[in-house]
Specification:
Strand content of chain A: 15-25%
CATH class of one domain in chain A: Alpha Beta
Structural class of chain B: alpha+beta
Oligomer: heterodimer
Number of helices of chain A: 16
CATH architecture of the largest domain in chain B: 2-Layer Sandwich
CATH architecture of one domain in chain A: 3-Layer(bba) Sandwich
CATH topology of one domain in chain A: FAD/NAD(P)-binding domain
CATH superfamily of one domain in chain A: FAD/NAD(P)-binding domain
Number of helices of chain B: 9
Number of strands of chain A: 16
Radius of gyration of chain B: 21 Å
Strand content of chain B: 25-35%
Distance between the termini of chain B: 43 Å
Structural class of chain A: alpha/beta
Largest interface: A-B, 13 and 17 residues
CATH class of the largest domain in chain B: Alpha Beta
Largest sheet of chain A: 7 strands, mixed
Helix content of chain A: 25-40%
Largest sheet of chain B: 6 strands, mixed
Order of helices and strands of chain B: HEEHEEHEEEHEEHEEEHEHHEHEEEEE
Radius of gyration of chain A: 22 Å
C-alpha cells in the first residue's frame, strides 16, 4: 500500500457523502470522495430516460436540507419553488381534490366533500407542523445518548427535554401518542372523507413495507414532513433550480472546499488493521490508504459486505444483520409526447405537485397485504408528478416526463421468485393502467417507459434490498437505535470507520443530515486524539 | 424427559444406589457405588471409565473453519496442527468467558469443538460471512474417558495404534476391535488418560471391549462424583460451578475474564482479531482484579474448629460445590466455589476466587467452615494450581 495521500475517504457521492466530504474538506482534511457511478448526486441524480428526457426517479420528494448545514457550507441555489401545488387526490375518475399548502384554500376545497373535515383541516396541519417541528430539532443534533452517565453527556438531553416541554402539555402528549400510532387511526380521529384520509396516509407508508394499519406509521408520516412548510401533509416543495439542486450545490461546495472527487470507483472492501481503518480497496484492486473512512452506503453493506467479520463482535454483526430494509417501492418513469389530461383537474399546475391515485385507506392496506406475503400488489398505490411543468428542459420542447412511485413492489418475492422482465412489465402495466384510469389517453402519449423494481434500485443505486431509506423507519430503527441500538452516533467499533448515510440518524430525506453529523463526529474524535 | 447416553444400556445396570444426576440434559451416574471412593481410587491408581457423552460436540468444516475458530477462541488457532488438541476458553466482545472446551484439528479444514454448554447459536453468529459448515454431533457421538495410570496399557491391548507415541493433547484415528474411534490424549482428571470418540451406534460395543480388556487391569466405571474430586486436585475449572458463562450471568459482576479464572495462559498475547481482544489486551496491561487459585486448608486449624465443639473433623466423600467466603484479617477478599477432601494428598482443598493482591502463592488466608451450625474460619494457604500434577500425565 502506498503512503496515505488522503486523511479520509468518503464513500458515496449522494447528498450525505457530498456534505460530509465538504465538511471534512472545510476542516482542512485531505478528503477523497469516491462514487461508484459516473455521475454525482446519489438518489437525487438525474438519469436519462430516453434521448432528451431526464428525471430523478427517486426524487419525488426533494427532501429537507437543514439550514445550518447549508449556511455552514455556504450552499447556494437552494431556494424552493414558489408554486403551491402540494397534493391532488383522485377521488374518482373525473373528480379531483387539490390541497394547496395554504390551509384556508385547502379547507375550502375540502368543504365540497365534507364540511366537518374542512373545519378541522387547519388545526390538523398546524398539529403536524408542530410535531414535525420537534423532530426537526431532534434531527439537527446527534441522536440522544440514552446511556449517558456524565453530566456533560446529559446536557444535550436536557436541552431537548426543554424544547420538548416547550411543545406544551397537550402537544407533548399528542407527540408521544402519534409516533406509535397507525396513520389509519390518526386519520380516523380527525376526518371522515376517505380519499382525503388516503392521500395523507400514503405519507405514513412511504417506502415502508407495512400498511396504514400498522403501528409506527404515524411517525413515518411526521418524518417525511420534517422541514416542510406549514400546511404540508406530503413532503417538501421542490427546489427552484431543478430536481437535483441540493446535490449540485453540495458538489460545488465540496469542490470549492478542496475535496478530490473520483467517480466510477466501486468499493470492494474496507481495509482494517489492528482494529483500525487503514483504507479502502476498490473493485479494480486499487488500494487507497487513509486513516479514516466515512461510508454513506447503508450500514449493513458497509459492515457486512466490506469489513472482514473477524474485526467485529458477533453480537454487533448479528444486530447489523437484522436491520430491516425491505424495499417495497417500484418506480416507473415515462417520457411523454404530451402532458396527460386529468378530467376534473382545476389547473394543470397541480400535476407539478404530488398526484395520489389511491382513494381509500382500505385499498392502501390491501396493497400492503400483498407485500406482506411477498407478492406485488395487484392494484398498487400509485402517486406521480410531472417535473417538466417546473423544469421544461428535462424534456424536448412541448414534451414531458412523468415519474410515478408504486407501492407495494416488495424486494423479497414469495417462493424465491425474482424481479425478471415479466414481473417488471406487469408492475409497469398496472401503474400505467392506474394513471390511464384517471387520465384517459395517457397510454397513447407514452414515448418511452422505464421501470425500476427494487432489484433495479439495488443494482443502479446500490440500495440494499432496493430500500431508499437504507433501513426502514421503524420506531426501533431511529434515533439512538439507528442503525443499531447503542451505535446511533456515527462511529463504529472499528476506530476510524464512520457511518453517515441515510441508514444512520436522522435518516432518509434529511439532505446531508447524517453525513454532516458523521463528519462532525469524525472531526471531534480527531480533535480528541 | 432426560436424554440417555449411548452407553446407558451398560451404565444403567451398574448404578446400584440409583445415584443419578442431570448433566446437560442427560441422566447420568453421580457414582455407581453409593459413595465414590473406589471409583476415585481407580482414577489415581488403575483406570476409571467415565461416560462423558453429555459434552456438546460440533464438527466444523470448510474453507473458513480455522478463521471461525480463531476469531472465536482466545488461543491462536493458526498454530494448531492436524492431530492436535487445544484446551481454550472463548469470550464475548467484552472479554468475558462464555464457555471453555477443546478444539481438535481432525484434518486440514476439519475441526471438532467440545463445550460444556450448547454453542450452536454462538458458532453460527461467529460464522457470519464465512464459508463453513457447522454440524451438531452432540447426540451422534458417544464419548468415553479412560483415565488413570493403567489407561494406556488397556487401550494398547485393543488398538493397533502406537499409543506410547501419542503425546499429551494429540489425537489419532484408529479402531478398537473393528470399531472406528478417535482417541485423544485428553481428560478432566489431570492424570494419564484418554478420551475415546465413537459413533453412537457402536457405543455399547466399545464399552464392552474396554471392560473386557480392562478387567485384568482393574478398570472401574466411575461417575461424576469421582471425577469432581480428581478435577479439584487437578485445579480444573467447571462452568456454572466455578464461573458463570457471560451468556448466563445476570449481572456484570458475575462474569469473568480468562485472567480471572486462571486461564490467562490461554489468551494468546499476539494473534489476529478475536472476540474480546481489545478488552483482554487492556486487562493484561492493567493486571487482573481477581485470580482463581488453590487453597490448601490447614489441617490443624481445621481440626481445632471441630474440637472446640467436641467433634472429630468431619470430611465428606463427595466434593462440595457452593460459594464459601474467604477472608484476610477479618475482611472478605474472595470466595471458594468448589473443594474436597483429597484422598491422595490427605488435605482439604478448595478452588477460590481471590481479589488482588492477595492471590500470590503462599499468602495466608482464612476460609469459612461451618461447624455444628456455627460459622468458623480455618487457616488456608494460597497454592499454585494444580495441587496434583503427576509426571505420567504428559509422559
Amino acid at each position: 500500500m502506498t503512503s496515505a495521500a488522503h486523511d479520509v475517504v468518503v464513500i458515496g457521492a449522494g447528498a450525505n457523502g457530498l456534505v460530509a466530504a465538504a465538511r471534512l474538506g472545510q476542516a482542512g482534511l485531505r478528503t477523497l470522495l469516491i462514487e461508484r457511478e459516473e455521475g454525482l448526486g446519489g438518489q437525487g441524480r438525474l438519469v436519462e430516460l430516453a434521448p432528451g428526457f431526464r428525471a430523478a426517479p427517486l426524487g419525488l420528494d426533494p427532501g429537507w436540507a437543514p439550514a445550518a448545514i447549508a449556511r455552514a457550507l455556504r450552499l447556494d441555489g437552494l431556494e424552493r419553488h414558489g408554486a403551491d401545488t402540494a397534493l391532488t387526490v383522485v377521488v374518482e375518475p373525473g373528480l379531483l381534490l387539490t390541497l394547496p399548502r395554504d390551509a384556508g384554500k385547502a379547507s375550502e376545497a375540502i368543504r365540497t366533500y365534507s364540511p366537518n373535515d374542512a373545519g378541522k383541516w387547519p388545526a390538523f396541519t398546524t398539529l403536524l407542523s408542530k410535531l414535525a417541528g420537534f423532530l426537526e430539532v431532534l434531527y439537527q443534533t446527534p441522536a440522544p445518548d440514552v446511556s449517558a452517565s456524565s453530566p456533560g453527556d446529559l446536557l444535550p438531553m436536557l436541552g431537548l427535554l426543554r424544547k420538548f416541554r416547550a411543545l406544551g402539555r397537550r402537544d407533548m402528549i399528542e407527540f408521544l401518542r402519534t409516533l406509535p400510532l397507525s396513520v389509519w387511526e390518526l386519520l380516523d380521529d380527525w376526518f371522515e372523507h376517505a380519499p382525503l384520509k388516503a392521500a395523507v396516509a400514503a405519507g405514513g407508508v412511504q417506502d415502508h413495507r407495512q400498511g396504514p394499519r400498522s403501528g409506527g406509521t404515524g411517525f413515518v408520516l411526521l418524518h417525511h414532513l420534517v422541514g416542510a412548510p406549514a400546511g404540508s401533509v406530503r413532503g417538501r416543495p421542490p427546489w427552484r433550480a431543478g430536481p437535483a439542486a441540493f446535490t449540485e450545490a453540495a458538489a460545488r461546495a465540496a469542490k470549492r472546499l478542496g475535496v478530490t472527487v473520483r467517480t466510477g470507483a466501486e468499493v470492494s472492501r474496507i481495509d482494517v488493521r489492528n482494529d483500525r481503518v487503514a483504507g479502502v480497496v476498490l473493485k479494480n484492486g486499487e488500494e487507497i490508504a487513509a486513516g479514516a473512512v466515512l461510508s454513506t452506503a447503508d450500514p449493513a453493506t458497509t459492515l457486512l459486505d466490506w469489513v472482514d467479520p473477524v474485526w467485529l463482535d458477533p453480537e454487533f454483526l448479528h444486530a447489523v444483520g437484522n436491520i430491516r430494509h425491505r424495499g417495497c417501492t417500484g418506480v416507473v418513469t415515462y417520457a411523454l409526447e404530451a402532458l396527460p389530461e386529468l378530467p376534473g383537474l382545476a389547473s394543470k399546475e397541480a400535476l407539478a405537485g404530488l398526484v395520489s391515485l389511491t382513494p381509500s385507506l382500505t385499498s392502501l392496506e390491501r396493497a400492503a397485504d400483498a407485500a406482506k406475503y411477498g407478492r406485488v400488489s395487484e392494484s398498487p398505490h400509485v402517486e406521480f408528478t410531472v417535473p417538466t411543468l417546473l423544469w421544461p428542459d428535462l424534456a424536448p420542447a412541448g414534451k414531458h416526463v412523468l415519474v410515478a412511485r408504486a407501492q407495494y413492489a416488495p424486494y423479497w418475492l414469495r417462493d424465491g421468485a425474482t424481479w425478471d422482465a415479466t414481473r417488471r412489465d406487469a408492475l409497469a402495466g398496472s401503474v400505467t393502467a392506474a394513471i390511464e384510469a384517471a387520465a384517459p389517453c395517457f397510454q397513447s402519449r407514452i414515448a418511452h417507459r422505464t421501470t425500476w423494481s427494487p432489484l433495479d434500485l439495488e443494482e443502479r443505486y446500490g440500495l440494499r434490498e432496493g430500500a431508499p431509506s437504507q433501513g426502514e423507519l421503524g420506531l426501533d430503527q431511529i434515533l439512538f437505535m439507528r442503525p443499531v441500538p447503542g451505535w446511533g452516533r456515527h462511529a463504529t467499533p472499528i476506530s476510524g470507520l464512520y457511518l453517515g448515510g441515510a441508514g444512520t440518524h436522522p435518516g432518509p430525506g434529511i439532505l446531508g443530515g447524517p453525513g454532516w453529523l458523521a463528519a462532525q463526529r469524525l472531526l471531534q474524535d480527531r480533535g480528541r486524539r | 424427559m432426560l436424554k440417555t447416553s449411548p452407553f446407558h444400556p451398560r451404565t444403567a445396570a451398574l448404578v446400584r444406589a440409583q445415584t443419578w444426576r442431570r448433566w446437560a440434559g442427560y441422566q447420568m451416574a453421580s457414582s455407581y457405588d453409593p459413595l465414590p471412593d473406589r471409583e476415585y481410587a481407580a482414577i489415581r491408581s488403575a483406570a476409571a471409565l467415565l461416560d462423558v457423552s453429555p459434552l456438546y460436540k460440533y464438527r466444523i468444516t470448510g474453507r473458513d473453519a480455522m478463521r471461525l475458530l480463531d476469531r472465536m477462541v482466545t488461543r491462536d488457532m493458526t498454530k494448531l496442527k492436524v492431530g492436535q488438541v487445544y484446551y481454550t476458553p472463548w469470550c464475548d466482545g467484552a472479554g468475558k468467558v462464555i464457555d471453555d472446551g477443546t478444539v481438535s484439528r481432525l484434518g486440514e479444514t476439519t475441526y471438532r469443538l467440545t463445550s460444556a454448554d450448547s454453542s450452536l447459536r454462538w458458532l453460527h453468529m461467529n460464522a457470519a460471512g464465512m464459508e463453513v459448515a457447522i454440524e451438531d454431533l452432540s447426540e451422534r457421538l458417544g464419548a468415553l474417558s479412560l483415565q488413570g495410570p493403567l489407561s494406556r496399557a488397556i487401550l494398547s491391548r485393543l488398538s493397533a495404534a502406537d499409543l506410547s507415541a501419542l503425546k499429551y493433547f494429540r489425537l489419532l484415528e484408529t479402531t478398537v476391535r473393528d470399531i472406528p474411534v478417535g482417541i485423544s490424549r485428553t481428560g478432566y482428571t489431570g492424570d494419564l488418560g484418554y478420551e475415546i470418540w465413537v459413533d453412537a451406534s457402536r457405543a455399547v460395543a466399545l464399552w464392552d471391549a474396554l471392560i473386557d480388556a480392562g478387567t485384568p487391569f482393574g478398570i472401574t466405571p466411575a461417575g461424576v462424583w469421582a471425577l469432581d474430586i480428581a478435577r479439584v486436585e487437578a485445579g480444573l475449572i467447571m462452568m456454572d460451578v466455578d464461573y458463570f458463562s457471560a451468556h448466563h450471568a445476570l449481572i456484570e459482576q458475575r462474569k469473568s475474564s480468562p485472567f480471572e479464572i486462571n486461564l490467562g495462559w490461554a489468551v494468546a498475547p499476539s494473534k489476529g482479531p478475536f472476540n474480546g481482544r481489545r478488552a483482554l489486551a487492556a486487562e493484561r496491561a492493567r493486571g487482573p482484579r481477581w485470580s482463581f487459585v488453590g487453597l490448601e486448608i490447614e489441617w490443624d486449624s481445621f481440626e481445632r474448629l471441630y474440637r472446640a465443639h467436641g467433634l472429630p473433623p468431619q470430611i465428606s466423600n463427595v466434593a462440595w460445590r457452593s460459594s464459601v467466603p474467604v477472608y484476610l484479617g477479618g475482611r472478605q477478599v474472595g470466595y471458594a466455589t468448589s473443594g474436597c477432601w483429597s484422598p491422595l494428598l490427605k488435605k482439604p482443598l478448595a478452588l477460590a476466587h481471590v481479589q488482588a493482591p492477595h492471590f500470590g502463592a503462599g499468602t495466608p488466608l482464612e476460609i469459612e467452615v461451618t461447624v455444628e451450625h456455627h460459622r468458623e474460619r480455618a487457616h488456608a494457604v494460597v497454592r499454585k494450581l494444580p495441587f496434583f500434577d503427576p509426571e505420567r500425565k504428559k509422559a
